[in-house]
Amino acid sequence: MSSYFTDLAQQYIDGEWRPGTGSWDVIDFNPYDDEKLASITVATVDEVDQAYRAAARAQRKWAETNPYTRRAVFERALRLIEDREQEIADLIIAELGGTRVKAGFELHLAKEFLRESIHLALRAEGRILPSPTEGKENRVYRVPVGVVGVISPFNFPFLLSLKSVAPALALGNAVVLKPHQNTPIAGGTLLAKIFEEAGLPGGLLNVVVTDIAEIGDAFIEHPVPKVISFTGSDKVGRHVATVCARHFKRAVLELGGNSALVVLDDADLDYAVDAAVFSRFVHQGQVCMAANRVLVDASVADEFTERFVAKVKTLKVGDPRDPETVIGPVINSAQANAISGTVEQALAEGATALVRGSTTNNLVEPTVLTGVPAGSALLQQEVFGPVVFLVPFDGEEEAVRIVNDTPYGLSGAVHTGDIERGVAFAKRIDTGMFHVNDGTVHDEPIVPFGGEKHSGLGRLNGETTLEAFTTVKWISVQHGRSGFPF
Predict the structure, then answer these.
(1) Cβ neighbours around 246 below 10 Å, total
(2) Alpha-carbon gap, residue 299 to 479, rounded angstroms
(3) How far, CA to CA in Å, does 222 sit from each of 23, 149, 166, 218, 297?
(4) Which of its termini does the chain have fewer beta carbons within 10 Å around, N or C?
C-alpha cells in the first residue's frame, strides 16, 4: 500500500504523471495517527487549463470509438480493482480513517457502479420522431456533452469519484477530476492509475490535485467543461451552482442532508435500533445520508431509547485497522472541533446527554442527545459526525412536520409493522429518497440518487446518469422537397 502513496503523489495530465508547479504542497495525513502519507505540489491555474485542453483534444476521437471498444476498458478496470481489493481497502483505511467494514462497503458499491458503467456504454440510444411536414424524418441523437469536471468529497472518495468519472467516460466524454485535498489518492490519482492500466487512452481522464486557495474558481469557470459534477456541502454547492449558471454550464449537485429515521408505534423496535445505529454511526457519521435525527413515537420512546443507548455504548472506537473497530477518526481536527462545538451548543440550549462521548485528537466518541429544544437550529442542520438527536413525537402528523422542518431533503427512513402505512408516510416527506423498514444510507447503480431543497440538483445513477452526462441533438432529414413562403 505504501507504494501507492509514493507513486501516485503527482498530477496526472494528458496521460503523463508529473509534479505540480504551485508554490505549496498538499500534505496527505492519516487522520488516526497523523502519519504523513504523501506530499503533492498543487496544480496551478495553468495546469488546470492544460488538463481541460488535453481532455477536449482526446474526447472527440473517444466519442467516435465503438461503444463495445469503450466498454472493454471498464471491464479491465473492474478486474484490476478486484485483483487489488485488499490494497485499496488498506489505502482507504489509512487515508480517510475508514474502518474495515466501511472500506468493504465502499469497494462493494464501487464495483457495482463500475459494472453499471460497462452496460451504460451501450445505452445512449437515439430516437426517430414523426413530423407534421411531409417527407421529413426527425432524428434525435443522444451524444456526449464533451468534457465533464468532477469535484469529489473526502468521505467516500473512491466511490463518489468513480460514480461520476466512470459513467461520464463510458458515455463518450472526457473528464477532469479534482479530488478533495484530504483524500487526493483514494479520490483521485488511484482512479487515474487504474484506468491507465486498463487501457484508457491518454488525455481522457486527468486528475488535478489543488485547492481553491491556488486556483480560485478556474476549475468551474474554464470554458471547456460543459457539466460540473460536484459532491460536497450545500454551502460550496450553492457557489458552484452560481458560477455554473453564470457560465451556462450544467451543474449536477449531490449535497448535504439532515435525514431522519422515524420509528412509528407499531415498529419492530430491535430492528429499528439496529437500523438507526448503523444509519447514524457508519463512517463516524460522515455520510450525507446519515440519520442526524431519530424520531420515535412517544408511546414507544422509553423502550426504544433504552435499547438504542445500550447498543451505542457497545460501539468500539479506535484504530480503524482493527476489524473490531466500528468508529474510527473523523477526517481532521477542524471536523472534530466542530462536532464538539455542536454538542456543547446543544447542552447549553438545555439538551440532555444520554451518552456523552469524549474527543481525543480526531477520535470522536458517540454522543446521544435528547431534549434539544424544538426551535433549535441544530435540528435543522447537518451534523457530520457521531452525534445523534433523539426526538419524541405524538402521532404521524407531528412526525411528518418535524421530518420536513429542515432546509435539506436527501434521504430518510420509517419503521412500521404496516408496509403500506410506511409508503404513505414516505410520500409525504420532502426528500429525493426515502426507505421503509431499512436504514437511511443506501445507494444503488440503477436507482435515481439525489435530493430536494438544499440537498442538491439533478440525479445520478442509471437512466438519470444518461441525462446528466449526455445531451440530445435534433437532426432532421427532408426526403422530399419543402415548400417555402418566399
Answers:
(1) 11
(2) 72
(3) 21, 10, 22, 6, 51
(4) C
What's the Cα-to-Cα distance from 104 to each of 79, 236, 323, rounded to whole Å?
16, 29, 11
The percent of residues in the chain predicted with pLDDT above 70, rounded, is 100
Sheet containing strand 16-18, edge to edge, reads 16-18, 11-13, 205-207, 174-178, 147-151, 227-231, 250-254, 456-457
376 sits in the region (left: phi over 0; alpha: psi -120 to 50; else beta) called: beta
Residue type at position 468: A
d(CA 396, CA 398): 5
Tell me the residue ranges of DSSP E strands in 312-410: 352-355, 359-360, 363-364, 367-370, 387-393, 408-409
The answer to whether the beta carbons of residues 398 and 350 sit under 8 Å apart is no
Tell whether the model's pLDDT for residue 144 goes beyond 90.
yes
Q: Classify 126 as helix, strand or coil.
A: coil
Q: Look at residue 38 in the predicted model and tell me its pLDDT.
A: 96
Average pLDDT across the chain, whole number: 97
Residue (of 116, 93, 95, 113) closest to 103 by Cα position? 93
Amino acid at 178: K
Tell me the β-bridge partners of 147: 174
So what's the pLDDT on residue 3? 76
Q: Are 128 and 137 in contact (CB under 8 A)?
A: yes
pLDDT at position 256 is: 96
Report the catalytic residues.
254, 288
Cell of 173: 466524454
Q: Which residues make beta-bridge pairs with 40?
A: 26
For the cut 70, the answer to whether the pLDDT of residue 331 exceeds it is yes
Q: Check pLDDT > 70 for residue 97.
A: yes
- Asked if 348 and 116 touch (Cβ cutoff 8 Å), the reply is no
CA-based nearest residue to 286, from 342, 327, 321: 327
Residue 402 C-alpha cell reads as 418535524
Residues contacting residue 57 through CB under 8 Å, at least 6 positions apart? 203
* Separation of alpha carbons 325 and 346, rounded Å: 27
Model pTM score: 0.96
| pLDDT at 1 (0 to 100) | 52
Q: How far apart are CA 149 and CA 147, in angstroms?
A: 7
Q: For residue 454, give the C-alpha cell.
A: 438544499
| Contact yes or no for 232/151 (Cβ under 8 A) | yes
Tens digit of pLDDT for each residue in 164-194? 999 999 999 999 999 999 999 999 999 999 9
**Amino acid identity, residue 162?**
L
**Cα dihedral value 435, 267, 388, 93, nearest 10:** -60
- Please choose, from the candidates 446, 379, 452, 372, the residue with its C-alpha nearest in 3D space to the C-alpha of residue 411: 452
pLDDT digits 0-9 by tens, 13-48: 999 999 999 999 999 999 999 999 999 999 999 999
360, amino acid identity: T
At position 417, the amino acid (one-letter code) is: G
